[in-house]
Specification:
By secondary structure, the chain is of the alpha/beta class. It folds into two domains: 32-163, Leucine Dehydrogenase, chain A, domain 1 (Rossmann fold, 3-Layer(aba) Sandwich), CATH 3.40.50.10860; 182-339, Rossmann fold. It is built from 13 helices and twelve strands. A seven-stranded mixed β-sheet has the order 9-8-7-6-10-11-12, with helices on both faces. A five-stranded mixed β-sheet has the order 1-2-4-3-5. Helix 6 runs parallel beside helix 12 (362-387) and helix 12 (362-387) packs across helix 13 (391-409). The longest helix has 26 residues, at 362-387. It starts with a helix and ends with a helix. The model has no long low-confidence stretch (mean pLDDT 97). The structure holds nicotinamide-adenine-dinucleotide. The site of nicotinamide-adenine-dinucleotide (NAD) has 23 residues, from helix 7 and strand 7.
């Protein structure tokens, strides 16, 4: 199943609950604008190379569109379209005054030098600068891009339009970035896992956690949950699964990640090593946090997952058919559009600070993040109970209702 078909399926289930007519569904589902561009750079060896870049602007009824830039070999129009629509529902569930967008380039950034990535980013801005801007569409980081890419993007865009750091978020903290942006998604995943387990009546120190992916999201989620006394018994990255039934030493894992090439856990000793995909099906795991890539829980492995709770750190890790199987088996899934909304929430705080030329402390960022996510969580939890639907369907119902209302007020124009 393609990524956009999967997000559309989740949308349809919630739209059925809400009784939305087909013409309104079409209007809510269809992206507002899709741009595909050729991005050509000179490689360090003097040869030209062409890449394909995308920006999909899904919906703008609730405000300027917002969504990350992904540099990954799998980036294509369908994936970007799916991620752009997820951003529309995510910003709406978190009640941020934004619409949804997403962009990316089909490239493996590990095969390019830093100077080549800079040239690629600047060439991409040259192609899409007219459709982005602080009141139009505000990109941010995603897989394969970081604060350096955001700084190059901003610098190139400002060559056309002059100083305006609010054109992009996820910038370096000393260059108009927000304190706490880097940790925000993983911290939000941790905060919401904690909240959910409290609601389910579980004690943190008796709740074993497994995290797939030890990148930005996975590592920060592990740090937060470890500090909240949850035993993290397994983490994985592309080099394998690192398992210890009595709980891993998360501080040592974070140190290893910092000190090793590409932030990988390869060579970490103080635990058992298993294949990367073994993490999903471990028997003594209570909460599984997929925080790596999309499409990892499928019809094939949904029955084998032992965890009773799944918190979607990644975007789109569970396919609709797998979601159905998990629901039937009584597994609680906290959906991506709520679980990983911490990143876009702090991006919103960064945009606000840039526009006010004012800087918040880390404490303020963290407390406003908690406030925003707690409100969103309570709303989703109550809607799920009121309508006897899953947390995912409840989150979509809230997001769709808010976007539909904004669309109606705008006359769907
Ligand atoms: P990242 O590139 O920093 O980390 C990805 C991690 O996943 C790495 O440790 C990598 O080794 C690992 N990985 C990749 N494939 C794997 C596999 N098959 N098995 C095990 N591990 C694997 O990326 P990130 O920023 O942490 O993003 C992770 C996910 O979270 C993505 O789906 C992204 O769209 C989503 N997300 C990220 C943010 C953010 O602010 N970074 C916000 C919202 C959603």
């Amino acid at each position: 199943m393609k990524a956009f078909e999967a997000t559309t399926r989740f949308f349809e289930i919630a739209a059925d609950q809400l009784g939305i007519e087909s013409d309104i569904r079409q209007s809510l589902l269809m992206p507002s604008r899709e741009m595909q561009v050729q991005v050509t750079i000179e490689r360090d060896n003097g040869r030209l190379e062409n890449f394909v870049g995308f920006r999909v602007q899904h919906d703008k009824y609730r405000g300027p569109m917002k969504g990350g830039l992904r540099y990954h070999p799998n980036v294509d129009l369908d994936e970007v379209r799916a991620l752009a629509s997820l951003m529309t529902w995510k910003t709406a569930v978190a009640n941020l005054p934004f619409g949804g967008a997403k962009g990316g380039i089909g490239v493996d950034p590990n095969t390019l030098s830093s100077r080549e990535i800079e040239r690629l980013t600047r060439a991409f801005v040259d192609k899409i600068h007219e459709i982005v801007g602080p009141d139009k569409d505000i990109p941010g980081p995603d897989m394969g891009t970081d604060h350096r890419v955001m700084a190059w993007f901003r610098n190139q865009w400002e060559k056309y339009y002059g100083f305006n750091p609010s054109v992009i978020t996820g910038k370096p903290v000393e260059e108009y970035g927000a304190k706490g942006r880097e940790e925000a998604t993983g911290r939000g995943v941790g905060l919401l896992t904690h909240k959910l387990m409290k609601r389910l009546g579980a004690n943190s120190n008796e709740t074993n956690i497994a995290i797939q992916g030890f990148g930005n999201v996975g590592a920060h989620a592990a740090k937060f949950l470890d500090e909240a006394q949850f035993p993290i018994i397994a983490v994985s990255d592309i080099s394998g699964t690192y398992y210890r039934g009595s709980g891993l030493n998360v501080r040592a894992l974070l140190k290893h990640k910092l000190e090793h090439p590409r932030g990988l856990l390869e060579g970490y000793q103080d635990c058992e090593k298993l294949p990367a995909d073994a993490l999903l099906e471990l028997g003594d795991v209570h909460v599984l946090i997929p925080a790596a890539v999309g499409g990892v829980i499928t019809e094939e492995n949904a029955e084998k997952i032992q965890a009773k709770v799944i918190v979607e750190g990644a975007n789109g890790p569970v396919y609709p058919i797998a979601d159905y199987i998990l629901h039937e088996r009584g597994v609680t899934v906290l959906p991506d559009i709520l679980a990983n909304a911490g990143g876009v929430t702090v991006s919103y705080f960064e945009w606000v600070q840039n526009r006010q030329h004012y800087r918040w402390t880390l404490d303020r960022v963290r407390s406003e993040l908690e406030h925003t996510l707690s409100d969103a969580f309570e709303n989703v939890w109550q809607t799920a109970n009121q309508h006897s639907v899953s947390l995912r369907t409840a989150a979509y119902m809230i997001g769709i209702t808010r976007v539909q209302r904004a669309g109606e007020l705008a006359g769907f124009a």
